[in-house]
Design a protein that fits this description.
The chain is α/β, with parallel strands linked by helices. The chain contains six helices and seven strands; from the N terminus they run βαβαβαβαβαβαβ. A seven-stranded mixed β-sheet has the order 3-2-1-4-5-7-6, with helices on both faces. α2 links the parallel β2 and β3. The protein starts with about 35 loop residues before the first strand and ends with a strand.
Length: about 210
């Protein structure tokens, strides 16, 4: 995306104020329509493809860079995809403002910024407090889907989700405890980063946890 910063510090003062807003459901969708949410969607190729595959679902892309949110909204309007909406969020600050309890069927956290430098590890997205919020917003049987092309990042995410301290959330590994999901992309849609990773012959480290 030309003219758009590739990285922002989610802990910067400019992003620490709560200002996310609830997502409004398009009127044409059924009240019980399934809801898929891509967290940190960036160019949102995954969301665009998923929304086209499932016009009966509400697909939501959430992103911290407001310029990217605006660009994705314009693209969705231009391409005529009415079941795809976008919104601002800082995941570790105001995710609790976006959805009510038991409102989401699937969260997709795909290829988050790895923040390789040790002093930047605190900026990584998945942490227990976010898991608490996502669990409240998931419907029974709902899923948290995570993917990365960086083993260290994926293993760290697994360590958070397998931590006995959050076992009370009831998130169960669809594979087996302490194991990655093996198999093809499970939802028919893939992100641009996954396409590039596969083209390079590299592995995607995938996790799937369901609310039991």
């Amino acid at each position: 995306m030309r003219g758009v910063r590739q990285h922002v510090n989610p802990l910067g003062l400019a992003f620490m104020r709560v200002r996310a807003r609830p997502i409004e459901r398009p009127r044409q969708l059924a009240a019980d329509a399934q809801v898929d949410v891509e967290l940190g969607c960036a160019d949102a190729d995954f969301s665009f493809e998923l929304a086209r595959l499932h016009p009966e679902r509400l697909v939501v892309g959430l992103e911290i860079r407001e310029k990217v949110v605006a660009m994705n909204r314009a693209r969705a309007a231009a391409e005529g995809i009415p079941n795809l909406v976008f919104g601002y969020v800082n995941l570790n600050v105001d995710m609790d403002q976006v959805f009510g309890e038991a409102a989401v069927d699937r969260f997709h956290l795909l290829f988050p910024d790895p923040w390789f430098k040790e002093r930047h590890h605190k900026r990584r997205v998945l942490e227990p407090s976010l898991c608490e919020v996502l669990r409240r917003q998931l419907r029974p049987g709902g899923e948290l889907h995570f993917a990365s092309d960086v083993y260290e990042v994926a293993l760290e995410a697994m360590a958070v989700l397998e931590d006995p301290a959050i076992a009370h959330l009831g998130l169960r590994n669809l594979g087996a405890p302490w194991s990655f999901w093996r198999g093809e992309a499970p939802f028919g849609a893939v992100s641009r980063r996954e396409v590039i990773t596969r083209r390079r012959g590299q592995r995607v480290w995938r996790l799937r946890y369901v609310l039991s």
